Automatic annotation (TrEMBL):
InterPro entries: Ala_racemase_N, PLP-binding_barrel, PyrdxlP_homeostasis. It holds the Pfam family Ala_racemase_N. This is Pyridoxal phosphate homeostasis protein. Belongs to the pyridoxal phosphate-binding protein YggS/PROSC family. Residues 11-233 form the Alanine racemase N-terminal domain. The keyword Thylakoid does not apply.
């Protein structure tokens, strides 16, 4: 199979699997959005996914994303920034990205709000929470989330629409540990949505290739999958090609 048909068949299989998992959890499959993580993959692969009906794509770095997004301008792709966002890169987010999944400070929120105001374009924002308390991961700790939301509310940030939470599950953990992490994020969303009166605070971005089934069972509204759609990352293929036989 050529690359385009490969991507199309993988997407079809994933959509079927996501729908199956959602129904098994008593959920509507339409409530789970597939984010195709296209980092390290070329614009041509994204175009193949677009031809197969995929619309949401995730990128982790501004440097890689911008030329890819510009090359696919006008195709109907919706872009999600899913990596750690540095303050000096905030100015590049709009108008290209519709979503940021990794908001973790008031400083970044203020910068993004200024950019949103300049472009007169709203930005959907998810707050990243380090539920596992892994020092190698970004995100606010669970107990710090109410304080950040209170600070964001005081700032009155035009153009920033708080939509929910994001997390990365534990690495090499058991099913109960992974599900506990995702259930904890769902509880945090529900508690803080009610506490701060945030009607649009409904999203849960959680679950990747190895754990998305558990994430859907625990209420994920967005799952972030890359290799399962595009195959091995481009730099991995290049490394193998250049390795001595």
């Amino acid at each position: 199979m050529d690359g385009a048909r490969d991507i199309s068949s993988r997407l079809a299989a994933l959509r079927d699997r996501i729908a199956e998992l959602a129904r098994a959890a008593g959920r509507d499959p339409r409530d789970v959005r597939l984010i195709a993580v296209s980092k390290t993959h070329p614009a041509e692969s994204v175009r193949d996914a677009l031809d197969a009906g995929q619309r949401d794509f995730g990128e982790s770095t501004v440097q890689e994303a911008l030329p890819k997004i510009d090359a696919l301008s006008g195709t109907g792709a919706q872009w999600h920034f899913i990596g750690h966002l540095q303050s000096n890169k905030a100015k590049f987010i709009l108008p290209r990205f519709a979503w940021v999944h990794s908001l973790d400070s008031a400083k970044i929120a203020v910068r993004l709000s200024h950019v949103a105001h300049e472009w007169s374009t709203p930005l959907n924002a998810l707050i990243e929470v380090n539920v596992t308390r892994d020092p190698a991961k970004h995100g606010v700790l669970p107990e710090a989330l109410p304080g950040l939301l209170e600070q964001l509310r005081r700032e009155d940030l035009p153009g920033i629409v708080l939509r929910g939470l994001m997390t990365i599950g534990p690495h090499q953990a058991s099913e109960p540990e992974i599900r506990c992490c995702f259930a904890g994020l769902r509880q945090l969303r529900d508690e803080n949505r009610a506490r701060f009166g945030l009607p649009l605070f409904t999203e849960l971005s959680m679950g990747m290739s190895g754990d998305y089934a558990y994430a859907i069972a625990e209420g994920a509204t967005m799952v972030r999958l890359g290799t399962a759609i595009f195959g091995e990352r481009s730099y991995a293929r290049a490394a193998k090609a250049g390795a001595p036989g």
